[in-house]
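Need a sequence for this fold. Nothing fancy.
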């Protein structure tokens, strides 16, 4: 991430997904720059106070959604950035805290809310219709057995509300057999619920667009994603921004209209993946994909 972002002296950056502060600390140690950091999780903002104290006047924490970065930074008087980093998905702190309800490894309340507000995963599991549950699991979890799981959930909740991560994981495992991948059968269902509870795909779409608007010439947008739905959105956005989308059919009249020159360039043709050493240090990085854009200097009209 650091090699791609290339932090510079006296530049201004945004870490839109502060989490545990790992990226923020690395950026601040690399160059004497200013860093704004956003996180919707109040626990993350509270943890960040210690890091802000180590870098007085350089790290500024904002509680909120990175999909609202334009308004959040605008309120702080920031209109242009030299770089934006988005490390998508759930943080290690959230996964490892049983009370947050993100993981099926140990039992906890079926919550999954990053911001601690709004409907919980338990609310969805216990109120959505069987059809709506199946559609969500298929669309956001890419779960082929979504209808079977939805039926099992509706049957189980008729006996008693589903309130814990262990309850839900056991229900899913009862109807989804293990395969040779070693991935827990409940993984895709938990992913779908988490994405729905936090509107993560909508957040990504808004965040990418606003980050591109905030970048000044030479500014870089670096995004790390962890599953295909996230990466697909990021790739499509960057391909379009860099003017590399396929040309329309020669029979399509829109292809006759002149197109504006692209404002960005992609920094690598393919997503960058972690090497063996990085995976050994951090096993959760094994599915990470990094993509990046750079804002081009636009010629004077």
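Here you go.
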């Amino acid at each position: 991430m650091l090699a791609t972002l290339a932090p510079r002296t006296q530049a201004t950056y945004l870490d839109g997904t502060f989490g545990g502060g790992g990226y923020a600390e690395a950026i601040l140690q690399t160059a004497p720059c200013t860093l704004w950091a956003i996180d919707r999780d109040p626990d993350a903002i509270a943890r960040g106070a210690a890091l802000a104290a180590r870098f007085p006047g350089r790290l500024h924490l904002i509680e909120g959604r990175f999909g609202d970065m334009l308004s959040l930074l605008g309120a702080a008087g920031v209109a242009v950035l030299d770089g934006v980093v988005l490390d998508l998905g759930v943080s290690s702190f959230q996964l490892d805290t049983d009370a947050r309800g993100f993981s099926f490894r140990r039992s906890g309340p079926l919550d999954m809310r990053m911001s601690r507000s709004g409907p919980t995963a338990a609310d969805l599991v216990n109120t959505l219709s069987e059809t709506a549950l199946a559609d969500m699991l298929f669309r956001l979890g890419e779960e082929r057995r979504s209808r079977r799981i939805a039926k099992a959930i509706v049957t189980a909740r008729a006996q008693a509300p589903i309130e814990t991560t262990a309850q839900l994981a056991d229900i899913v495992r009862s109807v989804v057999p293990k395969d040779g991948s070693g991935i827990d059968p409940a993984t895709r269902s938990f992913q779908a619920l988490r994405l729905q509870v936090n509107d993560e795909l909508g957040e990504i779409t808004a965040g990418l667009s606003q980050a591109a608007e905030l970048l000044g010439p030479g500014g870089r947008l670096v995004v790390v994603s962890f599953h295909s739905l996230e990466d697909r959105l990021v790739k499509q956005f960057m391909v379009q921004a860099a003017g590399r989308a396929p040309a329309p059919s020669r029979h399509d009249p829109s292809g006759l209209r002149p197109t504006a020159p692209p404002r960005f360039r992609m920094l690598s043709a393919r997503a960058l993946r972690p090497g063996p050493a990085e995976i050994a240090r951090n096993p959760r990085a094994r599915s990470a994909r990094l993509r990046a854009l750079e804002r081009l200097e636009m010629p004077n009209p």
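For context: The chain is about 45% helix and 15% strand.
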